[in-house]
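hey so i finally got around to running the thing on that chain from the lab meeting. sorry it took forever, my laptop kept dying and i had to restart like 3 times. anyway pasting the input first so we r on the same page abt which one it is
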Amino acid sequence: MKTKVFLFLPLFLFFGFANAQTKCSCNETLQKIISKIESEYPGFDVKTKDQLLYNNVKENALKASAESKSDDNCLEILKNYTGFFKDRHIWVLPNGNSIPQIANNVSSKNVLKPLNINLEKFRKEVQNQKNSFEGIWKDDSYEIGIKKLNEKESVGFIIKADPKFWKPNEVKFRLFADGIYEYYMQDHSSQKGTYKIIDNSLLYFDDIRSAFTKKIPQPVLNEEEIEDKINEINGFYIKKLTVKTTLIKLGNFSYTYVNAIEKMIEKNKTLLENSEFLIIDVRDNGGGTDNAYQKILPYLVTNPIRNVGVEYLASPTLISTTENYMQGLKKDSIKNKSEIIDLKKRIEILKANPGKYVNYNQNKVNISSVSPAVKSPSQIVVLANNHTGSAAENFLLNARQSKKVKFLGVPSSGVLDYANAMFFDYGCNNYKLLMPTYRSFRLPNYPIDNIGIQPDVYLDETVEDWERFALDYLEN
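ok and heres what got predicted. didnt touch it at all, straight out
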């Protein structure tokens, strides 16, 4: 099981927060968050060497929370405290179990009331409406009917979904003519944003990055074209820029996109092998998991890759979350056999060392030999900016070890020293607390947080078109 570095989170990380049931006052919430950070944050000892300064920030936050008359400014008070640590893997977020917000003067009483729709009649009506987006749409979890109510509004209603959360004909989302959506999450809280409909085949919700594909009537685009469109919207594509140079855009390394990235690379294998030059664009890639970029490494490497290891703080949250994740893997115990065995060993080590730092493989430096592709580009440029973070920064550290790779851009985001973030249950359900669970062995000699990884070639503000600059750099 490879080391995972998270900024965008896989679903299993939510298990650690599931048991919190108590609504707390702002002061009680802050006290419990302080206790959790002081006991389970891997960077606490290093970040609080100036005890006088830390205690001053803590006392000011506690005073402000005690004086707070309502929850209106509580989030700001909590963030003022957690902001002391200057670690962008520590987040405090509203829990989100709120009453749905109502858009465009829609009555809150009727917003989630099931629609009076005869499904069989609806199926027949939309079957021949080839130029309308009315019809039946699907994603991995939902089968949705979309019906136009009037010129200003259409609704998506449940046909099939998890019965624990949804009933047939309940409204899943509303689409307004001005391009705004109101989307109801699993807990029926609402999320607003903008949407786009592409070729009457693909409905995409920005912000929540959710996509539905049309099933009835027959969509204009085929499955492969729809997949390519979704990838491009999400920031994943490969295109040939010139006879010599190919560009790969990798906009995110979240677990959600690992399969899409791997399929995209495999699909374009011939193009990658026969390109003389390659540009890999990871600008604005906030991270995810190191697993996301493994398939591209064979085209980059010229020698074994050295990775400085990490040590985990054996906390109750890390233990329980790892156990919950392992239980999920047991649903397919044959496929996940090796990972389950590895996780069992990790859990044993964590339980034997409560409150201590543990290194699962006992090595401070890991050297991995990636087999180079039979054919690969001779020179490669990686483009990164100050929004390239977490696992994407780990990718930079791996890629620049190759003799044929140069990093062009500006210093990266600087959010890598403490990582593998998880939600921590601290006893209150008003807000979610996200924290890292390990620290890097690079510390203290080679810190990256709030500094970033420095480029080989700095692109100053006069360089407006980075892609063009990289192309000229490689070909001229």
